[in-house]
Every structure is written in structure tokens, then in C-alpha cells.
Amino acid sequence: MNRILIALVSGLLFGLGLVVSQMVNPEKVLSFLDVFGNWDPSLAFVMGAAVLVAALGFTLAKWRQVPLYAPSFSGPTKTKVDARLVVGSLIFGTGWGLVGYCPGPVLASFLLAGPPAVVFLAAMLTGMVAFSAADKHLPGRTKPA
């Protein structure tokens, strides 16, 4: 029960941070990404704050043998940059740059943001299902544990 409550509180805090920072506002995000036009650098502070929070979390984790609400720490299983990572990053960045949404903010705002967010969410979920189906046939696939 504690793990579920911690997950709920963490998700609510994350969503609140997205709303307060205006990451759920595609115009704000697109203005941040428009470095050669009407650039709004304010989201750089959001990124900086996220890096500081993550650094604090990793530092605190080094002092513990196990996490508070999990049997062990888990990190990434892949440590090398490969074509799948690069292509996925390019697709993610292209989508984010074209419409100003990425998965976290669109989930935090889709009920309030209207049709554009709903269309993006539907397209994102369709892409995830299509990739999951196609992934079995792609080279370099790592088998799930």
C-alpha cells in the first residue's frame, strides 16, 4: 500500500510541477525550442531545477543499501548508445518540436487542453502500439527479461 501511495504522490507532484512550469503549454515549449526566433529561455530554469533534484536523489541513494519502497535499486540495463536510441530520440524530439507536447505534459493536460492534446495523445498511443507490434521484427531487439 505504501508503494502505491508513494507512486500516487510522486505522480501528482510531477504533474503539478509540469503545470506550474508551464510545460503543459505547447506555445511555451515551442517558444523555448525556437532559439533563432522568439526564444523564451525560461524553461531552461525548469531543466536546471530537474537536474539539481536528480543529482540530490542520486546522492541520497548512494547512502542507502536499498530504496525505501522497493526491494532493490534498478538502473538502466543498456549502457551503450545505439541506432535504436538515436532514432527514438530523433522521433521524440521531432514530435516535441512540431507540436510542443511530449508524453508527460500531454497526460497532465489532455483533459484541459482540448482537441489538439487529445489528437496528440491518440497519435502517441497509436505509435506506441504500432512500435510494440513491429519491434518483434526489428534488428537489435533485446529480449525482455
Give a verbal description of the structure.
The protein is mostly helical and 145 residues long. It has one domain. The chain is 66% helix and 0% strand. It is built from six helices and no strands. Helix 1 packs across helix 5, helix 2 crosses helix 4 and helix 5 runs antiparallel to helix 6. It starts with a helix and ends in a 10-residue tail after the last helix. 9% of the residues are buried. Keywords: Membrane, Transmembrane, Transmembrane helix. InterPro entries: DUF6691. Pfam families: DUF6691 (PF20398). This is Transporter.
Task: Map the helices and strands.
Layout: H1 2-20, H2 26-33, H3 43-62, H4 83-99, H5 103-113, H6 115-135
Helix count equals 6
Taking the alpha carbons of the first and last residues, their distance comes to 26 Å
Mean pLDDT: 85
Largest β sheet strand count, sense and barrel closure: none
Total number of domains: 1
Q: Which strand-content bin applies to the residues?
A: under 5%
Helix-strand category: mainly alpha
Report the uncertain regions. none
Order of helices and strands: HHHHHH
> What is the rounded Rg?
18 Å
Shape: globular
Helix content: 55-70%
> Count of DSSP E strands?
0
